[in-house]
TrEMBL record, chain A:
Residue stretches making up the 4Fe-4S His(Cys)3-ligated-type domain: 102-141
Protein name: NADH-quinone oxidoreductase subunit G
4Fe-4S Mo/W bis-MGD-type domain span: 240-296
MF GO annotations: 2 iron, 2 sulfur cluster binding; 4 iron, 4 sulfur cluster binding; metal ion binding; NADH dehydrogenase (ubiquinone) activity; oxidoreductase activity; quinone binding
Cofactor(s) required for function per UniProt: [4Fe-4S] cluster; [2Fe-2S] cluster
Principal location listed in the UniProt entry: membrane
Iron listed as a keyword: yes
Superkingdom, taxonomy of origin: Bacteria
Entry-linked Pfam families: Fer2 (PF00111), Fer4_NDSU1 (PF22151), Fer4_Nqo3 (PF22117), Molybdopterin (PF00384), NADH-G_4Fe-4S_3 (PF10588)
Cross-referenced Gene3D superfamilies: 3.10.20.740, 3.30.70.20, 3.40.50.740, ADC-like domains
Coiled-coil spans in chain: none
Subcellular location: Membrane
Organism: Fodinibius sediminis
Keywords, comma-separated and alphabetical: 2Fe-2S, 4Fe-4S, Iron, Iron-sulfur, Membrane, Metal-binding, NAD, Translocase
Automatic annotation (TrEMBL), chain B:
Pfam family, one: 2Fe-2S_thioredx
KW Metal-binding (keyword) present: yes
Cofactor remark: Binds 1 [2Fe-2S] cluster.
UniProt protein name: NADH dehydrogenase subunit E
Cofactor(s) this protein requires: [2Fe-2S] cluster
Organism of origin: Fodinibius sediminis
Stored PANTHER family: NADH DEHYDROGENASE [UBIQUINONE] FLAVOPROTEIN 2, MITOCHONDRIAL, NADH DEHYDROGENASE UBIQUINONE FLAVOPROTEIN 2, MITOCHONDRIAL
GO molecular function, one term: monoatomic cation transmembrane transporter activity
GO biological process, one term: inorganic cation transmembrane transport
Binding site for [2Fe-2S] cluster: 86, 91, 127, 131
Length: 578, 184
């Protein structure tokens, strides 16, 4: 097998490999800015310089030539090589900054050049704390700058598009954003203009950077040049808490991180999963932070008259719900599950009312045909359509559900804005007793007689099955009124969470929503009704499910965590009808 | 928008086809087609850049990036004669700035501006590769006026006002003049 010598260690490699990626895969480090594993390699930041050469082989004998000490002779390449674009070959010798002073010096000098026109505004820069330029400068950069004259000034606060703001002075022209638009999203909207010392990325004058994936350029920008207009100046990254989760705005189930501070989701970034979304996610999914924070149903409410709702206590809500159930025969109940809710919620919801004697919950896929692309945006607007199919809820359409509603007396809806998405109208529900288990205030909750607030994906651990049949799960990121980060080992704790108290200025009780996981609410309802129904955690529900359902056999939360989701052996249910 | 009104004639389109045939990709023909456009309109403002991009079917951003790099492409409307005065090292040492400031005083405009009558624009440019005949200027991406003095500049402007472009001169560096005579 071909061999390569990196920092005096011998490694074997196979196939075409670039030195930088090979070194990174070994867990070692070479600083770089422009290189990105999913994009082409322009080698234009010049930061990943290494010293490279080749052992000299005697042409005739095929033996390595030795020097006087018996060591193999090395023919060094005439100049430093950018390791990102250096293809490994048999007998190659590479010295990184760890073993070569020349390489270390080359990297230091490159950094000094990169920093010549870079403003020293780290204290007010959003990227600070997660900035490759800042980190590399600390690690490999020069102590100070010898550049004593005025820096080049470039445009600041340029609205590149509806979601991306550019600070051209911070740009080091690595062209990651340009390559992203060219190669990944394909909109080709960006270019480098005024090439020379005044260069920066820009769109054509008649265009705006409205690429549906535009915010990925903010993630890959190695400096603070491209910033998210929504997140600009909202929080320092080290004050936030990062929790892995799943994008619930469409059917793809992009792997994401929820960034919270004081129980508010402030931004959403993609988490690498080569099976689903690689390093990317659509801009729409990042907008979801608003629905996690704002317009939430907090505390149960009952309809008084017309559209007036009044908040009520949990006890009263449970009592009201129980009375409604007791006043009607099980055949008069209509259960509507939801592709917007998790597998566990749907299962617990369906099971509870099955115990009462009601028939299986129906659900309506939320599809907009032609909405998707071939990348990460899907026709499916819900994260868990296949999950509803998996637990055999009854799939129906708008006409079917209208008929079913007309025949029912009590309609119980799980987390689905059926009125808002026009599967039902408010009039359809007006003559019925309607109960909504909901996360957000919607037209449906407004039309409901009783609204029960339940946790959203940012507040519970639950699993979702994406359009390709991959089951993935979320972690609780936001506390509710009834959970506590310090007691729930599944929740991560940021600096503010640890040191903030209810008596200081940066912790607000209002950010905690007064809601319960759907199953926990049903526990209370079961107590009142005297039903055998008790789930202390979504994990228990899932364990029960994986025992019952063939295609979930052997699937656990632990496997989902270790393998970044598990591909289920289920048929690829098309996503055509609406 | 004015954008819709812009269009290449069939002749120009034929020429663009001939240009495209010379390159492996259409993207590579950007520079030449920008010239076709600039010769037609006298500038390559954003709408003209878009016309070029749409004609070549390359991204608009790409054409914009290319056009913004070269001072020779005029991103705004310029005077009939564009005087590119070199102030790079050699010219600067030989009085490039004096020539530039003299021109500015004479025409009553600053570098980067155009006279009200639309006749002259002045640009301060970097090296045009004529260091041997510094200071020098270039007229509208064409002929060079070399070994400038204030008098020579005055005369050049007068000639240009009368519509007379300077003639192309074959230049020899001063130290080589003797040898040139000997050879000829």
């Amino acid at each position: 097998m071909p061999e390569v010598f990196i920092d005096n260690e011998r490694y074997e490699f196979e196939g075409d490999q670039m030195a930088l990626q090979f070194i990174l895969d070994l867990g070692m480090e070479v600083p770089f800015f422009c290189y990105h594993p999913s994009m082409s390699i322009p080698a234009n930041c010049r930061q990943c310089m290494v010293k490279a050469g080749q052992y000299i082989k005697d042409q005739e004998t095929g033996e390595y030539e030795l020097d006087d000490d018996g060591n193999r002779k090395i023919r060094w390449f005439p100049k430093m090589q950018t390791s990102c674009a250096l293809k490994l070959s048999d007998g190659m010798v590479i010295q990184t900054q760890e073993t070569s002073e020349e390489a270390e010096r080359a990297q230091k000098d490159t950094l000094e050049f990169l920093l010549i026109n870079h403003p020293l505004d780290c204290p007010i820069c959003d990227q600070a704390g997660e900035c490759p330029l800042q980190i590399q400068t600390y690690k490999y950069g020069p102590e100070g700058s010898r550049f004593e004259v005025k820096k080049v000034h470039k445009p600041k606060r340029v609205q590149l598009g509806p979601r991306v703001t550019l600070d051209a002075e911070r740009c080091i022209n690595c062209t990651r954003c340009v390559r992203f638009a060219d190669e990944i999203s394909g909109s080709k909207q960006l270019t480098i203009v005024s090439r020379g010392d005044k260069n920066y990325p820009m769109t054509a004058p008649s265009e705006t950077f409205d690429d549906p994936y535009s915010l990925n350029t903010v993630d890959i920008c190695p400096v603070g040049a491209l910033t998210s207009t929504d997140f600009r100046f909202k929080a320092r990254v080290w004050e936030m808490n990062q929790t892995p989760s799943i994008d619930i705005t469409n059917g793809k189930g992009c792997n994401i991180d929820l960034w919270t501070r004081d129980n508010e989701v402030l931004r959403i970034t993609p988490r690498h999963n080569s099976e689903v979304n690689d390093y990317w996610m659509p801009d729409e999914g990042r907008k979801a932070f608003e629905q996690f924070n704002n317009n939430r149903v907090s505390r149960p409410s009952v309809k008084l008259d017309g559209d007036n709702h009044s908040n009520t206590s949990w006890n009263n809500a449970i009592e009201t719900f129980a009375e409604a159930l007791e006043a009607h025969a099980p055949q008069e109940l209509l259960l509507i599950g939801s592709p917007h809710a998790s597998v566990e919620e749907n299962y617990a919801f369906n099971k509870f009312f099955n115990l009462l004697g009601a028939s299986t919950a129906k659900f309506i896929p939320h599809l907009i045909s032609g909405y998707g692309d071939d990348f990460l945006i899907t026709d499916d607007q819900a994260p868990n359509t296949n999950g509803c199919r998996l637990i055999s809820l009854e799939e129906t359409d708008s006409a079917g559900i209208k008929t079913a509603v007309a025949e029912a007396e009590v309609v119980i809806i799980l987390a689905d804005d059926l009125v808002g998405r026009e599967a039902l109208s408010a009039d359809d529900l007006s003559a019925k007793y309607t109960v909504s288990l909901a996360t957000n205030k919607t037209l449906t909750t407004r039309a409901s007689d009783l609204v029960i607030p339940i946790t959203c994906v940012a507040e519970h651990a639950a699993s979702y099955v994406n359009v390709d049949g991959r089951i993935q799960r979320s972690f609780p990121a936001k506390e509710t009124k009834y959970t506590n980060r310090r007691l729930n080992l599944e929740m991560s704790e940021g600096r503010l969470d640890r040191y903030g108290t209810n008596f200081d200025n940066w912790v607000k009780e209002e950010h905690k929503i007064d809601c319960l996981p759907a199953w926990e609410f049903l526990n209370h309802l079961a107590d009142r009704l005297g039903l055998e129904f008790q789930y202390d955690h979504s994990r228990t529900i899932f364990a029960e499910l994986s025992d019952q359902i063939e295609s979930l056999r052997g699937v656990t939360y632990e496997r989902m965590d270790d393998e970044q989701g598990v591909q289920l052996p289920i048929e690829q249910n098309e996503v055509t009808q609406a | 928008m004015a954008e819709q009104e812009l269009a290449f004639t069939q002749e120009e389109l034929d020429e663009i086809e001939r240009i495209k045939a010379k390159f492996p990709t259409d993207k590579a023909a950007t520079l030449r087609v920008l010239w076709v456009a600039q010769n037609k309109y006298g500038h390559v403002k954003p709408e003209v850049q878009n016309l070029v991009a749409d004609t070549l079917e390359v991204p608009r951003s790409h054409v914009h990036g290319v056009a913004s790099f070269y001072t020779q492409y005029y991103k705004e409307e310029m005077g009939k004669f564009v005087l590119d005065v070199c102030t790079c090292l050699s010219c600067q040492l030989c009085g490039g700035y004096e020539i530039l400031h003299h021109l500015e005083d004479e025409l009553g405009i600053k570098a980067g501006e155009t006279t009200d009558d639309g006749l002259f624009s002045i640009q301060e440019v970097e090296c045009l590769g004529a260091c041997g005949y510094a200071p020098m200027l270039q007229v509208t991406n064409g002929v060079y006026a070399n070994n400038l003095t204030k008098e020579k500049v005055d005369k050049l402007i007068e000639n240009l006002r009368n519509g007379n472009l300077p003639e192309f001169e074959s230049m020899v560096m001063r130290q080589n003049e003797k040898r040139k005579k000997a050879v000829s």
